[in-house]
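User: quick one, fold this
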Amino acid sequence: MPGAGGARQAIQTLALTTIDEVYAAYMPFVKHGGLFLKTTKRYSLGDPVFLVVTLPSSTERHAVACHVCWYTPARAQESRVEGIGLQFDDTNEAAMLRGQIETLLAGRETESATCTM
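Assistant:
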């Protein structure tokens, strides 16, 4: 239920500078894909967020409409990072970003922890 309660759409930026950061932030298990954003700002599930993403070795900025689908509070178990998971909306720009992320991560064999799992 995006935009629950008439919430205004927030704008956030996420600069991922290494493949490890992309791996840690990417949420392939979410429909249409998504990214985890480290933040202390409070959001509710379903809140709309406009995310501007920069991937490693690129100056291109991807602007994608998202909504909050995950929330990790401060002092979460297992020392998880505080922040929100943003599910990409079903748009062409989001599909292009997801494709670029999955290309960057193709062949990655490590099972290191991510921000969400």
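User: anything notable?
Assistant: Residues 1-5 have pLDDT under 50 and may be disordered.
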